[in-house]
Structure prediction request, 230 residues.
Amino acid sequence: MKTIGLIGGMSWESSKIYYQHINEMVRERLGGSHSAKSILSSVDFDEIERFSFSNDWDKIGNIMAAYAKNLEKTGADMVVLCTNTIHLVSDAITNTVSIPFLHIANATGEAIQKKGLKKVGLLGTKFTMEKDFYTKILEEQFGLEVLIPNIEDMDILQDIIYNQLVKGVFTTEAKETCIKIIKKLEEKGAQGSILGCTELPILIPSHEVDIPTFDTAKIHAQKAVDFALS
Prediction:
């Protein structure tokens, strides 16, 4: 079994779900008392959040690269960044380490492709929805058409994510608001919805949405387990 290197804390609310998913999947695959070999390095999210809002992505890239390099030095066989948004600086990681970096958008694209969908909605932070580091992979590598919410709904999602979800606040009102946003994208032709913030699957149960949802944290965790057991 290979050792999974995790960079977490963005936020730790979803990082703990990564850890749970990974260990449950390994136990399911191998049986007995098996659990995953993993190393977790967790950042102080307040610092990352401040740099995000000041658009200092170079600084975030340097931080992520240092964490990734440390994982490699301590024996990790791969790097898994437990967040969607901070994949914006994934090049800083891949340029620093020699071990594989498992990109969340690639894992998500593969999962959507297996479902045979062509047009999907994307919910996440404004950084994930507006910038092309995520959608470009889905469009160019997987031939998907990606729909994003309107500006007003993007602002609403941004507020819910940063002022509620990353702080561990998951309300019925926020859930219903997000489901309404997904419904709007469905009316525009979305056949499925990417929950492109790793806290969103905690908020939105898949059975409460009319179209398939893609839990990016779980999909990413599965990719890590597949690699670890390959």
Notes: The first strand starts at residue 4 and ends at 8. Residues 105-215 form a domain with the Rossmann fold fold (CATH 3.40.50.1860).
